[in-house]
Amino acid sequence: MDAFKLTATLLLLSTTTVASSPSSAWNASLPRWEWHPESGPLANGDQGQYLNLSSGVDLWYTSFGSPESSKTPVLLLHGGTGNSNQMFNQANYLARTRRVILQESVDPFDTPFIPRVAVVGWSDGAITGLNLAMNYTSRIERVFAHGANVQANQSIPGLNDPIISSDSGSLDSDFGTNGTTYSVKGRLNKRAVNSSEEYNCQSLSPLPERCSAMEQAVFRMWVSEPTWGLKALAKIKCPVWSVDGDHDVQVQRNQADSIAAWVPFAGQLILPQVGHDALLQDPTFFNFAMGYFLDMDYNGLLPYY
């Protein structure tokens, strides 16, 4: 067998091996975008500390990875009522080549230790990342915004969005619809809360008795915030990718569209066959896309290639 045939055979065998090893989240009774994979441990053993902010809040944070790397550190911001362990796949992946910082999704620049960073945000964390890019222009290098919305009622740009007009505002297909999304010109605004396994507020917080109050406060916030439009997003002067799962039924597709349309020179990435939890449902592809964006060379707002 010549070298070319041997290489091709090995590639085929390695591909077959990968294909025959489903994710640990595999559930044959549900399409992947309905999976709710569990969170996991950070590579530093979940070690972190608390910083007392000027607002009086004790902020949990952790930082690990490659501090001597020439690559820009990455600030990872989780969503809503979640926690940083939901982004363990991304943190552990990025920590191989750069410094990563994880903390709660409050104003991170009320802290002295965060330099200029790139931001990877999920859901409310993505919203926080966009907010940082609007208000701390010199300290945000770029933003990978997954699952963000710009209007609390998800009304802008509205139901006439050219991509989809399904009941949920997204690709909302399952076995009951034979994988088909039906356009009904309706609108559904819903959020799901995943409080599973060991990584939840009650198990992680030093004040678990306050978890319920925190969650209720977040629910109230979802009703009224954010309230951004073209003028607000136009303030962003760094590279942005507006990212969403093609089957995200918690955030309507028109929100990803409006971010891509209104942030100057933004890119848009629709991840295939995943939902709002794409970073947990398909971490391999998510991490590839995230890493590609973070390593891209930019000339101002435009990529070199």
Task: Give me a quick take on this structure.
Mean pLDDT is 76; it is low at 1-20, 179-183 and 185-193. The protein is 28% helix and 16% strand.
What does this molecule look like?
The chain is an alpha/beta fold and 305 residues long. It contains nine helices and ten strands. The chain has an eight-stranded mixed β-sheet, sandwiched between helices. Helix 2 links the parallel strand 3 and strand 4 (99-103). Helix 2 crosses helix 9. It is globular.
Query: What strand line-up does the widest sheet have?
Result: 1-2-4-3-5-6-7-8
Give the termini separation: 39 Å
Mean pLDDT: 76
Give the H and E element order.
HEEEHEEHEHHHEHEHHEE
Rg for CA atoms = 20 Å
Q: Detail the poorly predicted runs.
A: 1-20, 179-183, 185-193
Number of helical regions: 9
State the total count of DSSP E strands.
10
Features:
305 residues, alpha/beta, two-stranded antiparallel ribbon, 10 strands, globular, disordered N terminus
Set down the secondary structure blueprint.
Blueprint: H1 3-19, E1 49-52, E2 58-65, E3 74-77, H2 88-94, E4 99-103, E5 117-122, H3 124-135, E6 140-146, H4 201-204, H5 211-224, H6 230-233, E7 240-245, H7 253-262, E8 267-271, H8 278-281, H9 283-295, E9 298-299, E10 302-303
Parallel strand pairs: 3-4, 3-5, 5-6, 6-7, 7-8
Antiparallel strand pairs: 1-2, 2-4, 9-10
